[in-house]
């Protein structure tokens, strides 16, 4: 039974049970309706608690049902009947009340939540808007500005904040059900509050501020349909009668549900949850993660250290001398200072986390480590020296990981005593911010080593994607492929700003040339020089980037790269670069021609999809959707497009 009805004296308890997250499907809708009819008909019942079994309140409509035709009773109708009940309903919330779950709670007369609960309307992240009354009831309960933030941003709010905004009536002290029963008893005999849809909406405090907020939503949306629709439907909810607003909300929701953007975003939702599944690891036990070692306190080492500390994992950072140790500690401290400035941690947590960091120059400090990640200079000899020292000082059960971006980890493993414990953990900079983590499956890695790598990714709340050993794994290999193509398009006739603008219009946060200027051109220049001897002489090679580097144009940090930077960050097209491009084309005997944005994007997508198919053919990636997860979470591919492989028609189960 998806909804069971029990009672405590004259109070009914309607319990929803639909694991794993009590998503609302047909059975839950039907069960809620039956519970409503029964409690209304039973004269002895004076109030009802709506509570959920398992780890969370209702986390929304069942997204898996979206592809099927909606089957009555429809959720909006159930909620309208619920709010018309003659006896009080109290929503007792724990875990996450999201989407349809929060909308059900808004149909109840009261809401009580555990302090750790979160409440939100994340529909916009699925290319939708709330479709069961959320856009109409929410601004009748909280301030219009709060409703706008929740509906267009999709981010849940913590229960204490929800209490401050009026979204909930009380925080549950102790056992949730007991607290809800007490709360309900206190309400008995009071006049039932008007249904929210019968109340007037809270209007924006200030017209100018409201316009600014709306403009900010549209800027952030970068052309997506759902945030714009959310703004329009919210305006209706604030101005039209509730009944009309509810009808328009439903119409808009159904239209968006069949929009390609929502299908793509739902694909990404499930793709991100499938990403960490490696069939060979079924049943494999991960090792402990009680003590992490990090070799290297540079940008990456410090970022990985901070990520571990913020996940309550104690870290020993090894550096070559005490100055380097102090510099590494200072970088970690800066990251925690920034987290505190942003309100992510408070001063006491800052101090507690830093107390979990030990720095040392002697590898003997890693004698008890469970997992060690090396983030030292990208040079094979240096890596070999590190792994040799780790062989000596760590226990054979300690998992060893390299954070290398492109060196051969199989070669590192071959040079150690226990290659089965060697994996790759490729973090993306800044490592404490970027959600993507590539778990590199070396040839000899044991299931335990890989399971431990996955477990670390989960602890760090990363999106961990397994990748086989190859040049660039998944993300950098695809980046190199479309980089080669954009260099070719340059030489054939486009300008850096035309290509970058085409990428921005497609939905990338920035174009590939702006991105190179930000990262610095010297990193890939060094790699091209390293590979020059083994480069395929028949393969087209565009030398424009080399010419820029030879002229000292290394990007923002030198004030010039693909663009000119007078303020250190705004890219200005530079005639000198266009001259270098023209000279390169002339030397290659190319007559340059114009490119339109569609052709540019098509060329870039084709390069990504071709390389992605090669990656699948070589079993470097487990599934096509993993490639989408990598490109969206590590390389700025617009989420609402679904990913390059999704756009090529790949539909995993
Ligand atoms: N529908 C179907 N399956 C869902 C689901 C959902 N809404 N939410 C989670 N799952 C599955 C998920 O695929 C995974 O399955 C398992 O549950 C655990 O999820 C009418 C129309 C609740 C915060 O967008 O944010 O309501 O991989 O790994 O990290 O207006 O799940 O085990 O087979 O994410 O603890 C709005 C989406 C829907 C919430 C839990 N609701 N879910 O996180 O576990 S639209 C959402 C989440 C809507 C109304 C509209 C998270 C979570 P499997 P998990 P978690």
Sketch the major β-sheet: 8 strands, mixed
- CATH topology title of the largest domain: 2-enoyl-CoA Hydratase, Chain A, domain 1
What is the strand tally? 19
End-to-end span in angstroms?
28 Å
Give Rg in angstroms.
Answer: 28 Å
What is the count of helical runs? 26
How is the largest sheet built, in terms of strand order? 12-11-10-13-14-15-16-17
Number of domains: 3
Give the SSE map.
Blueprint: E1 3-8, E2 11-16, H1 26-41, E3 47-52, H2 75-83, E4 89-93, E5 96-98, H3 100-107, E6 110-113, E7 118-120, H4 134-137, H5 144-153, E8 157-158, H6 159-165, E9 170-171, H7 176-187, H8 207-221, H9 225-239, H10 242-257, H11 260-274, E10 292-295, H12 299-310, E11 315-318, H13 322-341, H14 347-355, E12 357-360, E13 371-374, H15 380-393, E14 399-402, H16 409-414, E15 422-427, E16 436-441, H17 447-459, E17 463-468, H18 475-492, H19 496-506, H20 512-519, H21 522-531, H22 544-550, E18 563-564, E19 572-573, H23 575-587, H24 597-617, H25 624-634, H26 644-647
Helix pairs in contact: 1-2, 2-3, 5-8, 5-9, 8-9, 9-10, 11-25, 12-13, 13-14, 18-24, 19-24
(2S,3S)-3-hydroxy-2-methylbutanoyl-COA binds at residues 20-21, 23, 56, 59-64, 75, 96, 98-100, 103, 122-123, 126, 128, 130-132, 134, 270, 273.
């Amino acid at each position: 039974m998806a909804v069971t009805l029990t009672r405590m004296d004259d109070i009914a308890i309607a319990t929803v049970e639909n694991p794993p997250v009590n998503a609302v499907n047909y059975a839950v809708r039907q069960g809620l309706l039956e519970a409503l009819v029964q409690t209304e008909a039973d004269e002895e019942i004076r109030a009802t608690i709506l509570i959920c079994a398992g780890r969370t309140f209702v986390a929304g409509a069942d997204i898996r049902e979206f592809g099927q035709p909606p089957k009555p009773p429809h959720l909006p109708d159930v909620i309208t009947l619920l709010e018309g009940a003659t006896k009080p309903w109290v929503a007792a919330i724990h875990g996450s009340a999201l989407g349809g779950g929060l909308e059900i709670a808004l149909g109840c007369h009261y809401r009580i939540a555990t302090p750790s609960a979160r409440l939100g309307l994340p529909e916009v992240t699925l290319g939708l808007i709330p479709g069961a009354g959320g856009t109409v009831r929410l601004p009748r309960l909280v301030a219009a500005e709060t409703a706008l933030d929740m509906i267009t941003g999709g981010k849940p709010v913590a229960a204490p904040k929800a209490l401050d905004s009026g979204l909930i009536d009380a925080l549950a002290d102790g056992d949730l059900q007991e607290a809800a029963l007490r709360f309900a008893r206190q309400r008995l005999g009071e006049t039932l509050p008007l249904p929210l849809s019968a109340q007037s909406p809270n209007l924006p405090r200030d017209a100018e501020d409201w316009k600014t907020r709306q403009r900010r939503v549209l800027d952030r949306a970068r052309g997506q349909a759902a945030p714009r629709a959310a703004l329009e439907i919210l305006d209706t909810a604030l101005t039209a009668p509730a009944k009309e607003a509810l009808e328009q909300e439903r119409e808009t929701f159904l239209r968006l549900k069949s929009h390609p953007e929502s299908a793509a975003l739902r694909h990404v939702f499930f793709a991100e949850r499938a990403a960490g599944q490696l069939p060979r690891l079924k049943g494999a036990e991960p090792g402990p993660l009680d003590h992490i070692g990090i070799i290297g306190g540079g940008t990456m080492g410090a970022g990985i250290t901070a990520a571990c500390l913020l996940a309550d994992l104690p870290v020993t950072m090894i550096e070559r001398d005490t100055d380097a140790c102090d510099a590494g500690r200072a970088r970690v401290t800066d990251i925690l200072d920034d987290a505190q400035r942003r309100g992510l941690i408070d001063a006491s947590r800052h101090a507690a986390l830093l107390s979990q960091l030990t720095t040392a120059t002697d590898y003997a400090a890693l004698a008890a480590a469970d997992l060690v990640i090396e983030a030292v200079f990208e040079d094979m000899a240096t890596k070999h020296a590190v792994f040799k020292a780790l062989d000596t000082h760590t226990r054979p059960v300690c998992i060893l990981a390299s954070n290398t971006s492109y060196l051969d980890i199989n070669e590192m493993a071959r040079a150690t005593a226990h290659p089965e414990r060697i994996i790759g953990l490729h973090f993306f900079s800044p490592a404490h911010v970027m959600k993507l983590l590539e778990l590199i499956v070396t040839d000899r890695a044991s299931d335990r080593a890989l399971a431990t790598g996955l477990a670390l990714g989960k602890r760090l709340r990363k999106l961990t994607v397994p990748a086989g050993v190859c040049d660039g794994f998944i993300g950098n290999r695809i980046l190199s492929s479309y980089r080669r193509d954009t260099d070719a398009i340059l030489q054939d006739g486009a300008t850096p700003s035309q290509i970058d603008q085409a990428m921005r219009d497609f939905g990338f946060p920035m174009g590939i040339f702006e991105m190179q200027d930000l990262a610095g051109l010297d990193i890939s220049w060094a790699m091209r020089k390293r590979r020059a001897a083994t480069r395929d002489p028949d393969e087209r090679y565009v030398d424009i980037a080399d010419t820029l580097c030879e002229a000292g144009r290394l990007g923002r940090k030198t004030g010039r790269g693909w663009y000119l930077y007078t303020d250190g960050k705004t890219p200005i097209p530079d005639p000198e670069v266009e001259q270098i491009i023209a000279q390169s084309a002339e030397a290659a005997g190319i007559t340059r021609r114009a490119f339109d944005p569609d052709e540019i994007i098509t060329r870039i997508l084709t390069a990504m999809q071709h390389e992605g198919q090669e990656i699948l053919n070589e079993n470097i990636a487990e599934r096509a959707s993993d490639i989408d997860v990598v490109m969206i979470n590590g390389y700025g591919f617009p989420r609402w497009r679904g990913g390059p492989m999704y756009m090529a028609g790949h539909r995993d189960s």
